[in-house]
Structures are given as structure tokens and as C-alpha cells.
Automatic annotation (TrEMBL), chains A, B:
SMART domains: cNMP (SM00100), HTH_CRP (SM00419). Keywords: DNA-binding, Transcription, Transcription regulation. The keyword Transcription applies. This is Cyclic nucleotide-binding domain-containing protein.
């Protein structure tokens, strides 16, 4: 078992009673996984909720010809994948370790019991799941309504909004390879898009990006903070 | 106010205590909306949860050039959009009435209070939200990993799985116009795709579709019942 105070630091469990936390801690497993390992695969039965403590994990899916796409990248503190766990369904995505990861595994039945108890826990779960739903809606909108260049521009503006340092200079959080996969394009496609975005005042040097005018770039891709900025735990508006 | 027994028939409220139902009924509004009206628009603050009693509603979004896409079609019994309501955020999609609709509006604060109570209500909400999340994940996967023809084929196989009458003959549930919008393509694009799908043994006559071989069509688009079939209230596996 793990220590209850470890759970206490995870947003999902904030406001959970010490007694409930103790019980969850008893049933929770802690695992370490090396880069390239899979925590679970698309199609597996969802018996555990996963919480990333350290490292990096990507959620991926495979197409009819075996091609792979990255749907989301998970950071420490993130839980995945609530929707499958709550409904006892199969995972629609695989979870692959990108950077050596420490992970908590919480049994599905235990979570469902905690929701029944009511109070903050159920609400925390709903908020987390809601944010995940909204991330997917934004992805669908992006894929349907934006060109490749507009999609990359919107991604940069979301980062600028999040990093918020004068907003014009941002640091790419991932390798170009991972970034391309996350945006649903090839690495060559991403490079071509960065070249095309020079016209919109976007300069890139290694992992540093400079945006000449946030307003101009917003207009180019129709970005709105209200609709396009990722739901974050401490939103800025 | 509306009658509590009306709420009782909605899956979201199954297992809710009569006392809680009475309280929700007191605060719930019932509205009628004509075709073409909007219940709310992308960007509006989410103060109410909507439940469709009769008619048809589409969730749409607009792109940078003002172009519109249909993200989902809602049927009687469906609730929308939980994720925005629970987190007090803005709607990421607009809700437009496609066929004269009767709708319940439930105040967000009241729902959050009910979740705090625990029991079945919070769990029902989580299940509904989970199914909605999974629908969006499938859409992202479809857009990223399938060609247009494979996407239409997967849509038909999901319908066949749902309608389940010998599986080879299905009825399109919507006009071709609505169908094209839902699949993220133009009406001409959809017609061209139906023509191309003849090679895969798909024959279409008005709203009747005949699939020569389910197995062949599955292979063509990599369809799996476990991963691709929409989560339904009474799943078949």
C-alpha cells in the first residue's frame, strides 16, 4: 500500500475525508514504468484508474492500417482514463510511457464506492472528467474547422496563454517529434507549417517561439481565450 | 414547475430519491422551441443543463471563417452539456433545434447540490458524462485515423450494430444533409463517398442501406464492436 498523504496531494482527492483516503491508500498500487512500456492498451478492460506521479505518458490510438496517433500527453497529477473506469468499459486509447513514470493504480470499484459517498470526491471526479471531455471537443473542433496552420497557431496561442510571460515568447514543452504526433501531423508537415507561419509573424528557434503579434495570430486562426484555452485548474478568466 | 414523475422517466434521474426529485422539479423549467431556434450559443455561460424530451437538437461549432460543423445530434432522453454545466464554464458548442423540441432546463447549482448528496445521482451523471467523453474520443480517432470512406463505413457499421436487424440492412436515421454535416463533409462529398463505397459492397437506395458483407466492410475500415460501437444504455456486449 502507499501512504495516504501521497493521495492527499492529488487534486482528485482534495476534500476527501482522512478515513476515505486511508481506505483508498490500502487498495492503491504504485508502479514504476520505463520509457516505451505500455500501462494498458486500446481494448483492455478498464479495471484501474491511473494517476501519473512523475514522468510523461502519451495516450495513443491505432488506425485501420496500423498507423498511430497521439491523442493526449499526460503530466504529473493527471488521472487517466476516468470515463472507461467509471463505466467498466474498454480503454479507447493506449497509454505509453514517454519518460520513465511513477504511477498510482486505483481499483475501479473503490472509486465508484467513493462517488456513492457523495461530498467533494464525486464533484472532483466530475470536474476532471468534464475538463477531459472539453479537451476532446476542442480537438474535434480543431480537426474539423481549422487548417493545419491554424491548428498549430491555436496550439501556440494556448501555450502563450498558459505560460503567460508577456505572452509573445513561449517555450515548446516537447520534442518536435512528440509535438507533431500530438497535432496529428508528420514531423515534415510540422516543419513546413512552421515555415508557413512566418508569414503570420511566428519565428521559431529550437524550442523557443516568438510571436510578433498575438492579436494578428488570433485573427489568423480565430482563437478565443474563452473557447480555445485549455481548462486549467487555476484558469485566468 | 414540472411534475416530478416526468423527471423520474429520465435515465439521469433513475434511483434519485422522491424527495430530491420533488426539489429538482420545483426549479426545473420546461420550454418549447421551434426548428431553427438556438437553445444556447457557443461562448454562452452554462447556467442550465438541458434535457431533450421530444424533437431533435444538433450541437454545432463555428470555425475561423464562420463555417459551421455538426458535432453531435441529440435524441429525446439526452442531456446536454453536462461538462460545461458542472464546471461553470462556457459552452463550446451551440444547440440548434432541428425538429420542434420540448426541453427541460435544470439550474446548474441544483445539479451540483445533488451530486454532493451522493448515491445514484452522481454516478448517473458520471456515466452520462463518460459516454459523452467516449463519443468525442471516437470522433477524434475517426478524424485522425480514417479516410472519409472509412469514416462513413464505420458510421454505417455502428448503425447496423445498433439497429441489429440481421445487421445487413439498415435505415439512415437522418436526411443526407444532416448526415453529411454530422460526418464533417459536404453533401456532394457524402454522395461521392457512397458511390466509392459500392466497391466495398455498400448499396444505398434513398434512406435504405444494404451491406453485402459486414465482415468485408469491417476489414475495410478496421471497425471493432468493442472500440467503435457507441456506448449505449443497453450495450450488446
Amino acid at each position: 500500500m502507499i501512504e495516504a498523504h501521497l493521495l492527499d496531494q492529488i487534486p482528485l482527492f482534495s476534500g476527501t475525508t482522512p478515513k476515505d483516503l486511508e481506505r483508498v491508500a490500502w487498495l492503491t498500487l504504485e508502479v514504476e514504468c520505463e520509457k516505451g512500456n505500455f500501462l494498458f492498451r486500446e481494448g483492455d478492460k478498464a479495471d484501474y484508474l491511473y494517476i501519473l506521479l512523475s514522468g510523461l505518458v502519451q495516450l495513443t490510438a491505432r488506425g485501420p492500417e496500423g498507423q498511430q496517433t497521439v491523442i493526449e500527453i499526460l503530466y504529473p497529477g493527471d488521472s487517466f482514463i476516468l470515463a472507461a473506469v467509471i463505466t467498466h468499459k474498454r480503454f479507447l486509447m493506449s497509454a505509453e510511457v514517454v519518460k520513465k513514470a511513477r504511477v498510482l493504480k486505483i481499483p475501479a470499484d473503490e472509486l465508484i464506492e467513493l462517488i456513492r459517498h457523495g461530498g467533494d470526491f464525486g464533484l472532483n471526479m466530475m470536474s476532471t472528467l468534464s475538463a477531459q471531455f472539453r479537451t476532446m471537443v476542442r480537438q474535434v473542433k480543431n480537426q474539423r474547422l481549422r487548417t493545419t496552420a491554424q491548428r498549430v497557431a491555436a496550439f501556440l496561442l494556448d501555450l502563450a496563454y498558459d505560460q503567460g510571460r508577456g505572452e509573445n515568447r513561449i517555450t515548446l514543452p516537447h520534442s518536435k517529434k512528440l509535438l507533431a504526433a500530438l497535432l496529428g501531423m508528420s514531423q515534415e508537415g510540422l516543419s513546413r507549417t512552421f515555415t508557413a507561419l512566418k508569414e503570420q509573424g511566428v519565428e521559431i528557434d529550437h524550442n523557443q517561439v516568438h510571436i510578433e503579434s498575438i492579436i494578428k495570430l488570433r485573427r489568423f486562426c480565430g482563437f478565443s481565450n474563452k473557447l480555445d484555452a485549455t481548462d486549467r485548474i487555476n484558469p485566468k478568466d
